Amino acid sequence: MAKDKYCILNGHLISIYEPSVSFNNRAFRYGDSLFETIRICNNKIMFLRDHITRLKLGMTVLRMNLPAELNTENIQEFIGQLVKHNSHAPHVRIRLTVFRNEGGYYTPDTNDISFLIESEELPGPYELNQKGYWVDIYADIKKSINKLSNIKSGNSLMYVMAGIAKQSMKLDECFLINENGTICESISSNIFVVKNGTLYTAPLTEGCVAGIMRKQIMSLATENKILTFESPITTYTLMNGDEIFLTNAIHGIQWVGQFKEKFYTNKLSLFFIDKLNKLAV
Length: 281
Fold this sequence. Notes:
CATH topology of the largest domain: D-amino Acid Aminotransferase, Chain A, domain 2
CATH class of the largest domain: Alpha Beta
Number of domains: 2
Number of strands: 15
Order of helices and strands: EEHEEHHEEEHEEEEHEHEEEH
Largest sheet: 9 strands, mixed
Radius of gyration: 19 Å
């Protein structure tokens, strides 16, 4: 696979080896940043408008100034330019990071922003994991429910700690719980539980990230007359489900094979991964 050689900083193509971010960068110092991880599948940028909409909502929450050039059309052009220069195709991971410009301590000197676009080649289209994930609950740190809960912030220490716990427990993924003690998401994905052909997923009021793939799966379910309910997820919900799958923008869908002593099927996971790949044609 081709290696990335370039990135785009504030609309300008630069070498990844060119020093361009100082030690005073607020993303580095305070996690004062947002990011979107965007999938290119078969040379098609997937769900870009939804990504930019979520990014802008996050910037509003963080009171960042929104420059006119940060729009879907411009970002699409920048991504195309970057992929071409890095010789990445046809499957690519794009990371778009927005960070508040340097200055100040906790209180910033400015609310103006910079943005960085990076690319990394992927091996193929959306693909369902052959072996179901082995998953359990990470409970050491509970996710707070507030106006920051639904955004994709660069301040990700809770997810980092959950990832370390996942490694130590030799799991494939961990479920996270919120301050109410209910299950809101996994380390990198939203959660769907299937029971008797009906989908259940945590509402955004439970503190989960407003996932782009979560939105697509709910839309596909509606199109295919599959009932979907947004309701709090508990251990009882998981243990009584027929199927559990995880959704994020890069992998699409990953199915859970085992939670505690319970084993699961992957019928709807296969159905949705097929639908996603058809959207990428």
